[in-house]
Amino acid sequence: MKKIHIVGLGLLGGSFALASKRKFPELTITGWDINQQNLQDAHTLGMIDREQEVADQDTDLVILATPADTLKDILEKSLEEAGESTLIIDLGSTKENLCKSLASHPRRAQYLAAHPIAGTEYSGPRAAFAELLDRKVMILCELEKTNLHLKEKAYELFDALNLKLRFMDPEEHDRHLAFVSHLSHISSFMLGKTVLQKMEDDRNIFDMAGSGFASTVRLAKSSPAMWAPILTENKSNILSALDGYINNLKDIREKIADENGAAIHMDLAEINKIRDILDLKG
Amino acid sequence: MKKIHIVGLGLLGGSFALASKRKFPELTITGWDINQQNLQDAHTLGMIDREQEVADQDTDLVILATPADTLKDILEKSLEEAGESTLIIDLGSTKENLCKSLASHPRRAQYLAAHPIAGTEYSGPRAAFAELLDRKVMILCELEKTNLHLKEKAYELFDALNLKLRFMDPEEHDRHLAFVSHLSHISSFMLGKTVLQKMEDDRNIFDMAGSGFASTVRLAKSSPAMWAPILTENKSNILSALDGYINNLKDIREKIADENGAAIHMDLAEINKIRDILDLKG
């Protein structure tokens, strides 16, 4: 591993750069960001050795960490420009459309579809930190379509970064993520919106907010440039998750309106099963 | 401050006991819990010096930390049994109905309606810890109805525990809390339910859950015995908060269905304003 090129030097791209530098001190990292301030910050923060839009021909890995709606174009362009032993990896939060659009690309074997389950509600290079990826799950899709020797380079980096690899179909990935990530973001954003609307009448409403509110509304701080594209990109799975969620909310609304305390208690006790599942994970 | 009696030795009552002991080592704490295991644990954990159902006549403060649906009866009973210089404080999460029902009670001056904005998703005495209340907001309602000298005793304890006092009408309290606490719990419980339902088809769905999901679903671990009564107790405010939330979810659902990325982006960017408000608080 001698040279990596990173496109998109925000929270994820920046953290990848910092972690890679730490593990491979001899590594050269070139990088690019469409945002000039990000590019400058990435330099100042020691994430990249050189700013350049196009990867050198002898680059081992090109890592794409830009918003979901930009990935298809950047990925196609990167594949065209790439040297013969360069592997292009995208880190996008949705995988189905991207994998489909690349299915019959002549250089498909030089592409690896990846998604690290790592992030915070903050964005940009200044939010990045080397530990973000440490011991996180990294989902890889359609592994069989990627060239064997090029994959080895990716594994070398992922193992060094302590990523825990998981493999699944792009369809399965998008279906799962709609429920355990995208729906969480929507619920949090809409919770924030509801309380902000209430604040128009009651200015002091946030004074009474405790740690529970902070926890449920944290994701409402997330970047719109990252999240708006994910929501439309994974539309059908998200609509299905959202419909289930709205139905459950309507159902408990009925029970509250009926003052059916016993039914509510039964519901909440059943949902408490999530304790065991989350504790097993944690 | 010589003697305190605590009814309900769970997370909140137990934490009150531990913090009070730490600040007033000479204090005698008597206590009661309808659950024998809790009572025994409270003893083992050093929360109470003596188990007894009824407070001694020379008790300074009786603190009621039981579920919302039990408070009215326990409060009336406690007022009847209380010595003349005992103050009864309830720590319930809803205040309007309780204050109304006590409005013309002959011993109303011996009651103080309080609500500490402090908790975790865990419950029972084993979840309690002395720091739970440290520097948390403590809302007090209808302060003018409580006897002046008795109030001083409460202030002595609250100040020692570093509680930050806030004053408001019971109606205002319940209206605000519906938005910044009760709605968060409902959104989290229903998110948990939606993903558990999905898990019936996809058993491995939680493998892909990251810190964002954990954060939004954390409150779904909360105690049904505590939360089911709060939801019916604060029914009208919660229905109003819930209707606003469901409408916002339906609205973004439309925008996703229309693939209206620009409108979604505008929405999320507007909601990002919550960053400044939360950062100010934090």
Description:
The structure is a homodimer. Chain A has about 280 residues and is α/β, with parallel strands linked by helices. Chain A has two domains: about 5-170, Rossmann fold; about 175-280, 6-phosphogluconate dehydrogenase C-terminal like domain (6-phosphogluconate dehydrogenase C-terminal fold, Orthogonal Bundle), CATH 1.10.3660.10. Helices cover about 50% and strands about 15% of the residues of chain A. Chain A contains eleven helices and eight strands. Chain A has an eight-stranded mixed sheet, sandwiched between helices. In chain A, strand 1, helix 1 (about 10-25) and strand 2 form a beta-alpha-beta unit. In chain A, helix 6 packs across helix 9 (about 235-255). At the A-B interface, helix 6, helix 7, helix 8, helix 9 and helix 10 of A face helix 6, helix 7, helix 8, helix 9 and helix 10 of B.
Topology:
The structure is a homodimer of 282-residue chains.
Chain A lengths: L2 E5 L3 H13 L4 E5 L3 H9 L5 E2 L9 E4 L3 H14 L5 E4 L5 H7 L8 E6 L20 E5 L6 H13 L3 E5 L1 H30 L11 H7 L6 H10 L1 H23 L3 H11 L2 H8 L1
Parallel strand pairs in A: 1-2, 1-4, 2-3, 4-5, 5-6, 7-8
Antiparallel strand pairs in A: 6-7
Helix pairs in contact in A: 6-9
Gist?
2 copies of one chain form a homodimer. Chain A is an alpha/beta fold and 282 residues long.
Q: Per CATH, which architecture of the largest domain in chain A?
A: 3-Layer(aba) Sandwich
Query: Which fold name is given in CATH as the topology of the largest domain in chain A?
Result: Rossmann fold
Termini separation of chain A (Å)? 33 Å
- Could you name the ranges of chain A where pLDDT drops below 50 across 5 or more consecutive residues? none
Mind describing the biggest β-sheet of chain A? 8 strands, mixed
Strand order of the largest sheet of chain A: 3-2-1-4-5-6-7-8
Q: Beta-strand level of the residues of chain A, as a percent range?
A: 5-15%
The total tally of domains of chain A equals 2
Helix content of chain A: 40-55%
Question: Oligomerization state of this entry?
Answer: homodimer
State the total count of DSSP E strands of chain A.
8
Number of helices of chain A: 11
H/E element order of chain A: EHEHEEHEHEEHEHHHHHH
Global morphology of chain A = globular
In CATH terms, the superfamily of the largest domain in chain A is NAD(P)-binding Rossmann-like Domain
Pair of chains with the largest interface and how many residues each contributes: A-B, 97 and 96 residues
